[in-house]
Structure formats: structure tokens, C-alpha cells
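Notes from hallway chat w/ T.B., transcribed later so I don't forget. T.B. wanted the structure written out for a chain they're using in a teaching module, and asked if we could keep both sequence and C-alpha cells in one place. Agreed to drop them here.
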Amino acid sequence: MHVILLKVEHRPPGHALMETLRAAGVCVEEWAATAGSGGEGGVAASSLPPPPLAVICEVAEGASIGEIHAAIGEAAVAWPDAPVVACRRYAAGEPPSELHRLDTHALLRLGFHAVADDPAQLPALLRDLEESGETLPDSASHSEEFDPSAATPASMLLPDNLSVARLRAAFEAVASLHFVSDQKSAAQTALAGLAPLVTADRWTIYLAELERGQLQARFEPLAVRGLTESERALPEGDWRRALHGDSLMLLTGTESQAARDAFSSSETQRKIEGGRRVLAVPLLSGDRVLAVLEAVREGESRRAFSSGEAALLSALALPLSAALANSVRIAEAEKLSQTDDLTKLHNARFLRQYLIAEVKRARRYGSTVTALFFDLDDFKEINDRYGHLVGSHVLMEMATVILTGVRDTDVVARYGGDEFVVILPETGLEMAVRVAERMREKIAERVFTGGRSLRLHLTASFGLSAFPEHSQSPQQLIADADAAMYEAKAAHKNCVRVASKS
């Protein structure tokens, strides 16, 4: 059993890998990838070892994706019939954090045909290859020059005339998108990766949406990198920049016609508009355009974007679109995890996180935060008499009553059961008592239907605590407000009580 061990970046093979292969009786021949050294050339056919059963490439933590992909391409040219197998290599004998490793699907997209998570898996994998006599399909059709689309059938189709350096940069730009979890970070990371690949004065990613009943889409700048000369010449006191502190609002409503055409046609556009050279690439999610990537060059001396640059950005649009769409799903999942399913108010998890930040801010700026903790009086009787479906509907009605009695800057959460918490930032105790009394009266005056045309009346008992007057921490703030609420319960309910000073 003969295999080629492909060395990337002149890194010597790992001891565990070599010992495992030798113990299994595998003949190993080491071969240094010339592309791994940053060169442009390949290997001479006369100097190649005989065809191996497989080509093995160690993938170490932090290895350059560009170097690995170039080495895979070189192996595809040198040994077109041999599958290229990845074997993970860990720095200190322990697997790295999942956050910092490429998963199996990512390695397969790079061009590997199989992945071993540990050297111990290699003998069985190689034995299967030997017994099946498997070779790569259509091996006779491989050309002498490396075609990225042939070596990476599951990856995007990059232009075939890319240098190793640009190929490396392209794959590193894609890989960086694996580690972003929000939409804005995904867009900013993408622009940082694209800027070295294609020269432009300004890069922008616009979220695009065709609103119902509208003939033209609405474009909202999500991320921007650089500005054109005319944009930089605007006065520093420009009200848009003064209000927003960045260039995003500066670009609102200034998207190019090329960007609009890319949205409507779902195809890449190259245009010259008012002395500007514009390249616009649609970013598709499923069958709709999620956003548009726009690159702008300004000035008479600036050349237009080439077809090769358009092809490169069009190829990279697929993983960028996936990253943006995935970040939206992550944000929605995060929002759901912090939202009460029944009332759609914030839940206790969100409340804890919010209070930590708000108390820190209040401590820093010397302001006050007040918590209102209230519980519905005798709510159990509604559940016992009319059932839990009526009780659940009453809680949804209660959420509406609460939200209409607070400011937009106040935070309302369902703490659990029939308990609710309202956080009033930058609000002193005197004002908070007035808010609580007003809310108590609104609840007492409201007729609840329970979703069944019933006429139900409820009251609530309120407890108040303020930072720093009563409480010195987020946990203590809620605990003191809760204790004050129980004092209101003891005082015949339907009233407001303030926490005792510590």
C-alpha cells in the first residue's frame, strides 16, 4: 500500500501520523508541495513518484486555506487518479475549539475527497480505498493545468486564471465568513476580504427589499469600506455624518443604477455612471435577491471593471450570500431565545443580560435605574374557573396593557407565570411610583375577555426598587423589587410599595 504524504508550507509530518501509517504497513513517500511555498509553478512529470493509492495532506490548526487549496490543485494535476485525503493535526494532542476549526463539509468544499479526524482512522480508510479499487471519475479528462472547478466540484467556480496569491486570498475571505454571527459583521468581514482582491475606491453592501405595492426596491446600506473622492470632499459638518458618525447614512438613497439593475435582473452589472465605474453583484438567498454588493471607481483615469473581476466577485457572491442569510437566522434564533413565546415580551434571560449592561451604564454616568416588579392578584382563580387557555389569553391582553403604559425606552419582560418586570432607565423613584400607580389603575379598569367574550376584572400588586438608592447590583435590584411586591400583597393587594433602603 503506497501513499504520498503531501507537505504544505514545508511543515514536517506529525509523529502520530507517521507512526500510525508505518504500524499499518503503509509505504509513505513524502512530497513537498511547490505551491505551498508561494510559487506559481507545478511539478515536473518526470520527477513524480509512481501513482499512489491516495495523497494525504495534514491539516493543522491555523493552516492557510489558500496554501492547502493550492496544494490540492497541484496533487490533482500530478496524480489525477488518486483521491486526496485530509488528516487533522492537533497542536498539543487535543482537538481545538470547534469555533476555530474547519468542519468536514468545509474541507470537502476545499477539494478533499475524504477526511480523517484522527490519524488512527487512516488505515481503515485506506484499506477501503484499496479493496474498492476506487479512482476518481473521468480521470482521463484532467488537463495539465490545474482547473479549480475540477478539483473542487462542490465549491464555487472561481476564474481559472487566478494566481496562487489571489486564490489564497479568495479562500481566506470565504473562510473568514464562517466565524461571524450577525449580519453587519458578516458584511464588514466580507468587504475586508474582497478589498485586496479587486481594487475599488468604495465598497458597499446594500440590503434590498421590494416592498408591497412599490415599483422600486428599497436599498439600505449595511456596510461600507472606503469613500470616493467626491464623497470625501463633503464638509465634515455635513448633518448626515454628524448625526450618524459614519458613512452609512451618507450613502442612503445614493445606490447606483447598476445596483438597481442587479437587483431586478439577478445578474452582475458593469456600468459607467456619471464618470464612475460601477460593478454591482446580486447576493441571492434561494430565489430572491437578499442584498447587492457594489464596487465603485471614480475619476477619468480609473479603468472600468474587467470581466475577470466581475467573474471573481460573482463566484464569491455565493458564500457571502450564505453568510448573510445564515447570520439572519442566527439573529432570529437569538431573538427567539430572549422572547417569551406567549406574550412576545422579553423573557427573564434577556432581562438579566439587559440589567447587567444598564446598571453598569448607570454606575458609570451616575444615573438611576428603577425596577417595577408586579404580580397579578388571584390569577389562579381564572385558570381554575375558566381553564388555562383563557388564562393564557388574559396574559396576552395584559402585555398590551403594559406596553401602552410605558415609554419606548422602557423594557418590559414576563418574569414567569403571571409576574412581570418593567425596567425604567434614567428614572428616579418619584417618577417610577407615578408610572406604577398609572399602570395599576389601567389594569384595574381594564375588562379582559379571555378570548371568549368574558368580562374579567384583575388587579396587580407592585414592588419598586431603584439603583443605587436601594440596590447595588442587578440581582439585588430584582430581589428588592420582588420583596416590595410581597409587601404589597400583604397590604391587601392592588397597591404599590417601595423597597426599604439597604
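Follow-up for T.B.: The two ends are 78 Å apart (CA to CA). Might be a good example for the class.
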